[in-house]
Amino acid sequence: MLDPKYVYENIDYLRKVCKDKFVECDLDSFVRLYETIKTSQKELDNLNASKKQAAANRDNELGKQLKDQ
After folding, report:
1. Are 38 and 54 in contact (CB under 8 A)?
2. CA neighbor of 69 nearest in space, from 38, 36, 50, 34
3. How many domains is the chain partitioned into structurally?
4. In whole angstroms, how large is the CA radius of gyration of the chain?
5. What pLDDT score was predicted for residue 56?
6. Distance between CA 41 and CA 57 in Å, rounded?
7. What phi and psi, each to the nearest 5 degrees, are found at residue 50?
8. Are 55 and 47 in contact (CB under 8 A)?
9. How far is 51 from 56, CA to CA, in rounded Å?
């Protein structure tokens, strides 16, 4: 199995390989999904960092709002 990051970074090469081996593969959908996952992960990381900051500042109200998000 190929690493998703490798596939994303070498998409043109893999398109050529699939074409040469007569394999149909929807790599465009993979790219869209991978980008969505990366964006969602960044948003989650930012929310967790904000939540941690609110906890350090003892801001319970903000912490509850961030938790709900």
Report:
1. no
2. 50
3. 1
4. 19
5. 75
6. 24
7. -65, -40
8. no
9. 9
Chunked into runs of 10 residues, the chain (69 residues) has average pLDDT values of: 92 94 92 96 89 76 71
Which amino acid, residue 26?
Answer: D
For the record, the structure tokens of 49 come out as 């960092």
Rounded CA-CA distance 40/19 in Å is 31
Give residue 59's domain range. Answer: 4-68
d(CA 67, CA 13): 42
Q: Residue 2 burial by CB count (10 A; 0-12/13-18/19+): exposed, middle or buried?
A: exposed
What is the length of the chain?
69
- Rounded to whole angstroms, the Cα distance separating 12 from 32 reads 15
What's the token pair of residue 31? 């790219």
CA separation for the pair 2, 26 (Å, rounded):
15
Tokens 């994303």 — which residue? 8
